[in-house]
């Protein structure tokens, strides 16, 4: 179990048990992100009493300044990595959509070409049938007219 002083969560106890060991601990989320970051930093690298006095006099203790700098660098790095990942996913989605549309267009062009070839074949057959019909009609007229 994590000791209370080393935990990154804020524990609250009831006021009636403040001088005794608390019988039940209540966890509460720290709503202020600045306080939450400060508490995390304090848990990672707590300031000793002598250092706290020096920190008050010299603004921020140098180790804490370095830690803040490191934390912000890591936050920025994580943010940029998530933006980069999102960008890659978006580009991949656009590429897949483009490829799908190109494939769809190609299938439609092939279908139209097939239909045009079929139409020309049917038109040739129709011309042959019309010619055959005209030939049959002419033969019938020759046979029937003499009578």
From TrEMBL:
Q: What does this protein do?
A: Involved in sperm flagellum assembly.
- To which species is this protein native? Nyctereutes procyonoides
Q: What is this protein called?
A: Axonemal dynein light intermediate polypeptide 1
Write down the PANTHER family for this protein, in alphabetical order. AXONEMAL DYNEIN LIGHT INTERMEDIATE POLYPEPTIDE 1, AXONEMAL INNER ARM DYNEIN LIGHT CHAIN 28
What GO cellular component term, any one, is given? axoneme
Question: GO molecular function: any one?
Answer: dynein heavy chain binding
Family according to the record: Belongs to the inner dynein arm light chain family.
The coiled-coil segments of this chain are 112-139
Entry keywords, A to Z = Coiled coil, Dynein, Motor protein
